Amino acid sequence: MYYQGVKKLIVPRPVPKKKAHLEAFHPVLQRIFISRGISSPEQLNRSLSQLPSPDSLTGIKPMVEHLALALALQQRISIVADFDADGATSCAVAIKGLHLLGAKQLNFIVPNRFEYGYGLTPEIVELARQQQPDVLITVDNGISSIEGVNAAKALGMKVLITDHHLPGEQLPAADAIVNPNLPEDNFPSRALAGVGVIFYVLIALRNRLRELDWFAQQHLSEPNLGQLLDYVALGTVADVVPLDAVNRILVHQGLSRIRSGHCHAGIRALIESSGRKQHAIYASDLGFSVAPRLNAAGRMDDMSLGIQCLLTDDAELAKTIALQLDEMNNDRRDIEGRMKIEAMALLDEMKALDEKHLPAGVCLFDDNWHQGVIGILASRIKDRLHRPVIAFAPSGNGEIKGSARSIPGVHIRDVLSEIAAAHPQLLSKFGGHAMAAGLSLKIHDYPPFALAFDESVHKHLTTLDLEQKVYTDGELTASDLSLEFAGLLQNSGPWGQEFPEPVFNGIFEVIQARIVGQRHLKLVLRQTKSQQLIDAIAFFIERPEHWLGVRSINAAYKLDINEYRGIQSLQLVIQYLEKRL
Fold it and tell me: Left if phi > 0, otherwise alpha if psi is -120 to 50, otherwise beta: which for 275?
């Protein structure tokens, strides 16, 4: 049997048999929502009024008191950001938001990943010292910066940490910490991205300033912080955090602002350079087209360029920077392609493509790999092998840096914690989430680490975990294979991590097939017992020529609205296909 890529099982998504009050929705949408934990229309309300109050965030009160004092004294504030899209958008929200609230002396600093690595380190504190800040605010980092916070405090700086990464056993001695993942935190969502955390801090700060009558005293108009939601939407989607109820509201509201033209010049320029249409932008466009261009700055050079793009109000400058970022992204793609070929060669050498010899947890390293691209490489190989993967690159001084990606069933940061506890000498540092993590170790410790990683992952995996599955929302009738239903699905989002975009499956006759470009397959399909012809496309098919004579397929697909010269048509975007015998 022919199949696309690796053999997978097409599995119907479980639909719990529980009472739901969704009668007003299309029957297929009812099934989709129930399978994603939705049982009432109230859970689908995406208005800002449904956002929970920031008051239940642990540390929010001391945080806003310190910030209110900094504004009152007009202290110098420096933002320390992470070098990914979440960090960049977090920085933009902090700078723009604090300025709207009355701060006048604002700077930012973002570590160059190739020189300083991640987070608020003592070296970054020394760099920040040149800006002579009274207050350091971390965004999307800081929760593990024990030494960096101590260094800043020793220099007389006040340190305020906003982060969403999982804390370790010891917290830094900051003046205030806001992180929804602190064990004692009671905020309704633990899924906020870094940009969501700083946005919530600004909401709480505005509330406090209102109580202090700050805006009247300073002759300031109370700002609408909703104008920052385009940044929040991009950072949230880019960081692939779960789209729970809170994040769905934030992303929906941000997308609405972008579509209506109320977005910042940098966001507009990034969308334009990606070839997407601003008036018809969706969460998937942010994740797959816009975010990679912003991330390219941090991967290939310095995220300061990306932050400049986000912060500028000059439309022409934003376009110029966006074009630079587009070129960087093209370079990143070229490097990624080469690294993937080399990674597959390494796997061949390990006989890893023979599943009998495939490690449960795969480690890959090459002396020539690019630090900024190993995360993408790990993700690509993880998708192919369907098991946790860490890709490593040299970082200097006898160390290597790794970027880890995992699959459901294996909490990758917990795996690294286990290894650190069992082998304290192996890991220099690590941090991350359930599905992604970063780490550093000495190059001579790579072989024992790879062994320990495989052993630890093996304990967490079952045979069922290793089966590649495509979960679908069932089959569609001919009447649902329509532009109207595709539009209904698009407008029922945002879809994303842990609230996945609907995927359907079905058996189709292949009326026509042709290769587009080098590896794309353009199809005209027809359901059995139907005369309706349906356009479909499958991207990046291995050996597409094998499909040219196929007459019948079993496919998993998404519904898409294709627009060409102003005319819209339905298109199936195939996620997986098999030849029917």
Answer: left
Does residue 34 lie in a domain region? Answer: no
The tokens for 499 are 């609230």
Q: What are the φ/ψ torsions at residue 579 (nearest 5 degrees)? A: -75, 135
Closest CA to 248 of 486, 39, 23, 50: 50
- 405 neighbors 433 (Cβ within 8 angstroms): no
Name the token pair of 481: 């294979």
CATH (domain of 209): 3.90.1640.30
Alpha-carbon span 500 to 300, nearest angstrom: 30
For residue 231, pLDDT over 90 is answered with yes
Q: Is residue 232 within 8 Å of residue 285, measured between CB atoms? A: no
3-state secondary structure of 57: coil
Q: What is the mean pLDDT of residues 337-345?
A: 95
Q: What is the dihedral of CA 224, 228, 232, 234, to 10 degrees?
A: 140
What is the pLDDT averaged over residues 234-247?
97
Neighbours of 107 (CB within 10 A): 15
Rounded distance between C-alpha atoms, residue 191 and residue 197, angstroms:
10
- What number is the average pLDDT over the span 58-68? 98
Q: Is the peptide bond before 388 cis (omega within 30 degrees of 0)?
A: no
Say whether pLDDT at 352 is over 60.
no
Which whole-number Å values give the CA distances from 78 to 109, 223, 333, 504, in the listed order? 7, 21, 33, 48
Evaluate if residue 189 carries a pLDDT over 80: yes
Angstrom distance (rounded) from CA 33 to CA 43: 10
Kindly tell me the burial class for residue 564, based on how many C-beta atoms sit within 10 Å of its own C-beta (0-12, 13-18, 19 or more).
exposed
Q: Which of 194, 224, 195, 236 is nearest to 48 (CA)?
A: 224
Q: How far apart are CA 424 and CA 210, in angstroms?
A: 49
Q: Same domain for 315 and 377?
A: no
**SS3 category, 104:** coil
Provide the token pair at 322.
């966006």
Dump pLDDT digits (tens) for 109-131: 999 888 887 889 999 999 999 99
* DSSP track, 245-292: HHHHHHHHHHHHHHHTT-S-HHHHHHHHHTT--GGG--HHHIIIIIHH
pLDDT of 25 above 90:
yes
Alpha-carbon distance 426 to 88, whole Å?
Answer: 31
CA distances from 556 to 96, 211, 474, 575 (A): 43, 54, 9, 5
Where is pLDDT greater, at 168 or 106? 106
CA distance 445 to 206: 49
Instruction: Provide the token pair at 172.
Output: 């830094």
231 and 130 in one domain?
A: yes
- What is this structure's pTM? 0.93
For the segment 273-323, what is each residue's pLDDT rounded down to a tens digit?
999 999 999 999 999 999 999 999 999 999 999 999 999 999 999 999 999
Residues facing 520 on adjacent strands: 516
- Report pLDDT digits (tens) over 394-405: 999 999 999 999
Given 418, 438, 460, the domain boundary residue is: 460
| pLDDT per position as a tens digit, 193-211 | 999 999 999 999 999 999 9
The verdict on residue 1 lying in a domain is: no
What CATH number does residue 403 fall under?
Answer: 3.10.310.30
CATH number at residue 555: 2.40.50.460
